[in-house]
What we know:
The complex is a heterodimer of chains A (about 350) and B (about 220). Chain A has about 350 residues and is an alpha/beta fold. Chain A folds into two domains: about 1-120 and about 295-330, 2-Layer Sandwich (Nucleotidyltransferase, domain 5); about 130-295, 2-Layer Sandwich (Nucleotidyltransferase, domain 5), CATH 3.30.420. Helices cover about 45% and strands about 20% of the residues of chain A. Chain A contains eleven helices and twelve strands. In chain A, the strands form three sheets. Chain A has a five-stranded mixed sheet with strand order 3-2-1-4-5, sandwiched between helices. In chain A, helix 6 crosses helix 8 (about 230-255), helix 7 (about 215-225) runs antiparallel to helix 8 (about 230-255) and helix 8 runs parallel beside helix 9 (about 270-285). By secondary structure, chain B is of the alpha+beta class. Chain B folds into two domains: about 5-85, Phosphorylase Kinase, domain 1, CATH 3.30.200; about 90-210, Transferase(Phosphotransferase), domain 1 (Orthogonal Bundle). Helix content of chain B is about 45%, strand content about 20%. Chain B contains six helices and ten strands, in the order βββαβββααββββααα. Chain B is globular and about 50 Å long. In chain B, about 35% of the residues are buried. The chains are: A alpha/beta (about 350), B alpha+beta (about 220). The interface between A and B is large, with 52 and 39 residues.
Amino acid sequence: MKDKTLKGCCLGIESTADDFSVGITTFDGKILANVIDAYVPPEGGIHPREAARHHSEVAAKVLEEAFTQSGKKPKDLSIISFSQGPGLGPCLRTGATVARALASYLEIPLVGVNHCIAHIEIGKLRTGAANPVTLYVSGGNTMVVAFEAGRYRVFGETLDIALGNCLDVFAREAGLHQKPGLPFGAVIEKLARDGKKLIPLPYTVKGMDLSLSGLLTAITALLEKGHYKLEDLCYSLQETAFSMVTEVTERALAHTEKKELLLTGGVAANKKLQSMIKAVADEHDARFDAVQTQFAIDNGAMIAWTGALAYTNGTVTPVEKSFVKLRWRVEEVEIPWMK
Amino acid sequence: MDEVNSPLLIRKGAEANLYLADWHGRRVVLKKRLPKEYRHVTLDEQIRTYRTVHESQLMHEAKEAGVPTPKIFLIDVKNTTIIMEFIEGKQIKLLLNDLSEIERRNLCFGIGQLIAKLHKKGVIHGDLTTSNMIMNANGKVFFVDFGLGEKSEELEARGVDLHLMKRALESTHYQFAESCYKSVIDGYGSLLSSKELQNILEKIKEIERRGRYVAERRPQVSA
């Protein structure tokens, strides 16, 4: 059993939101494949059912590509892991269905993985960070997480909407367009570079938590009034929202006194945010790492790798217990591979 | 400010540095909000000035409400610095783990009563954590760090304040967060009518449902 584990591979399926992705890793952390297929809605936000339909349509193609990329065959797999939550129900269920089918057909174990923890673990693997404070900012999540006493604990988080969500909604209200490879966040970042005027906006930090919904309401109202240049609005939105996120990150870093700071999630690609978080790390003599985009956005490799870690430490998810968990918090998961 | 002698950095916080110093023969704490390199200069100055002034006002009002806070000696707005009394004691964060269950329960009950006194006076602390509470040698509990506080009579603000206390207990004292929080609420409720307590508890639930990925939000759907 142990020999097989060490030799084999782990295939991970990610489908919590708009991305369907398959990754293949070894049990010692080599990434052999990471194929991501993003669903871009023709207009508006992500409709969970439409995203799920996209996932089921591309699943076979993405799987095939992952096998080609890795040079592996289904018989080389030792386990199948999948993103069990948190996320959008229909999307999660599509990925889970594919995972269950594969595991049953190949008669190998199934491992359910917490999506947020997978982001942290792949970040650690790719950057070499051992025990960081992690800022995870994406379309669905905004949280500051650090390991304490057997589990990852949330030291700060949004009380309402996620940072990426805030940026996306503003971009749509402003009539901006995104395309594959150029998400709304990148469009805003580009416009913000030409902004000069800092427009006063609500700045809401509550303890280690923050609130972004008031900021979004205020900037949307200003947009409708039409008194300000779009570049200045984007600039002010970034300055204000990122300052809030950076402040709560600094609070968690000062509180935990850890010496590594990891930035991940889709919004981690933003250079302005990177420079702000790096400034905080420097101030507290902590090492700063931003996870590379292909491993910072939702991806299958992170699910495969975290599945490998969990399985090596005795976690298996029987099919009858593999129901998806839409609101699965990181604190609920024990992390036996961290000491 | 000139009369401050031999300041010694005792804590490098996220927001401010604390120095222990001599000032006119007294041992005082200097709380200095330093510029944040990551923030836009204008935004940074606004935030630091606002918090320096506001914190001092709220500490004063807390005292009037019967909640011990350090005495303020000087507010230097230009240098975003407050000179205040040095409270010799221990952070509740460091005490809590060494107490017996009954001692812990009594302490948390008392903390809950202090929070109720603040709220009744319209003071929202804004950062209720066990690091921001200090017990002196006589067992008196002081609240510090009102920098994120506000004046508000609203149920929403009070609810968030208590929710933050719960979150702080969960992240720092996960072993007994639940029983501590229950004692805090018992203490808080002991100074309120049962109707008032019921209103605030319902508000806290509503606030928690607004969060991301919380079990309280809706019944778990599975497939």
